[in-house]
């Protein structure tokens, strides 16, 4: 069975920001089939990678994303006394305007976009064959016939 499966953390492995506002992740979702009472059909999220603090803004149009980011940045920098240092987005286009590029340059803000993009609901899983348990009981040992190699994973869907 293929599908989208959220990875569970394994013994705290993973690189997260080491301080508040060092990395903020953002994504825009929509358009929604149902319009909100305010007329919003989109929403945008900003997540501080260190604290996992999440802020959501409702938008009528995708073009309002830059204004939402400016409001978010002003709010969190005022509340924490720290500066947003890096913004990670999926590169879908909401932050590609010249105005936004200039804003980032003027404020010393680094932008990070993944090298590849997946569609929202694209399969992430691979078909593998269960071969037992990993050494020290740290996950499942699986054979990937496509890549012809063994994997140790704690993220298995049956």
From TrEMBL:
Residue ranges of every copy of the Integrase catalytic domain listed in the record: 13-109
Name this protein carries in UniProt: Integrase catalytic domain-containing protein
InterPro entries in the record: Integrase_cat-core, Retrotran_Ty1/copia-like, RNaseH-like_sf, RNaseH_sf, SH3_retrovirus
Keyword terms: DNA integration, DNA recombination, DNA-directed DNA polymerase, Endonuclease, Hydrolase, Magnesium, Metal-binding, Nuclease, Nucleotidyltransferase, RNA-directed DNA polymerase, Transferase
Domain of life: Eukaryota
A Pfam family annotated for this UniProt entry: rve
Gene Ontology BP terms: DNA integration; DNA recombination
Organism (species): Riccia sorocarpa
Gene3D superfamilies: Ribonuclease H-like superfamily/Ribonuclease H
PANTHER family reported in the protein's UniProt record: TRANSPOSASE, PUTATIVE-RELATED, TRANSPOSON TY4-P GAG-POL POLYPROTEIN
Single GO molecular function: endonuclease activity
């Amino acid at each position: 069975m293929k599908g989208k499966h959220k990875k569970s953390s394994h013994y705290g492995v993973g690189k997260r920001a080491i301080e508040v506002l060092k990395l903020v992740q953002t994504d825009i979702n929509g358009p929604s089939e149902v319009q909100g009472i305010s007329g919003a059909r989109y929403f945008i999220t900003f997540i501080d990678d260190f604290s996992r603090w999440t802020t959501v803004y409702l938008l009528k149009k995708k073009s309002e994303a830059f204004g939402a980011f400016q409001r978010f940045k002003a709010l969190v920098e005022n509340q924490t006394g720290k500066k947003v240092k890096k913004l990670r987005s999926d590169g879908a286009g909401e932050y590609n305007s010249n105005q936004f590029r200039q804003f980032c340059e003027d404020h010393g803000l680094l932008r990070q976009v993944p090298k590849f993009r997946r569609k929202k609901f694209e399969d992430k899983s691979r078909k593998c064959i269960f071969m037992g348990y990993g050494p020290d009981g740290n996950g499942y040992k699986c054979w990937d016939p496509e890549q012809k190699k063994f994997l140790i994973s704690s993220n298995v869907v049956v």
